[in-house]
Amino acid sequence: MKYVLMFTSDPKLDAAVSAERERADLQRVLEWHEINSAAILEGGAALHPVETATTVRADSAGPVVVDGPFTEAKEVIGGFTLVDVADLDEAVALARTWPLLDLEGNSVEIRPMFDEEELFAL
């Protein structure tokens, strides 16, 4: 079954991480992807900081473009990876090995992906 793993963090806590720690974390993330390459599908990405976001929001006058994300969000998505594993238990086991879970405020959200047949059956 296919899942998306969304890697989230708290930007206020991220700001306290040293540049040296960020470089070490990047290496750990690359190693994690290599170790788990059999389950990882093409198509994940690391995202630029939330401050670079642009949001298109619904408005009574039509779509409105605003700088930044939803301001009320405490956690933001810093990246995502698509995986193909047997079931949710396997996805959870994989997410538990995410190397950045040792940083306060970080989490991995796991969401199942619709396959084409499921989507068009709605």
TrEMBL record:
Q: Report the family membership.
A: Belongs to the YciI family.
**What residues does the YCII-related domain cover?**
1-112
Q: Which Pfam families match?
A: YCII
State the organism named in the record.
Leucobacter komagatae
Superkingdom of this entry's organism?
A: Bacteria
Instruction: Please give the name of this protein.
Output: YCII-related domain-containing protein
SUPFAM superfamilies given in the database record: Dimeric alpha+beta barrel (SSF54909)
Xref: PANTHER family: BLL7171 PROTEIN, BLL7171 PROTEIN-RELATED
Q: Which residues form the signal peptide?
A: none
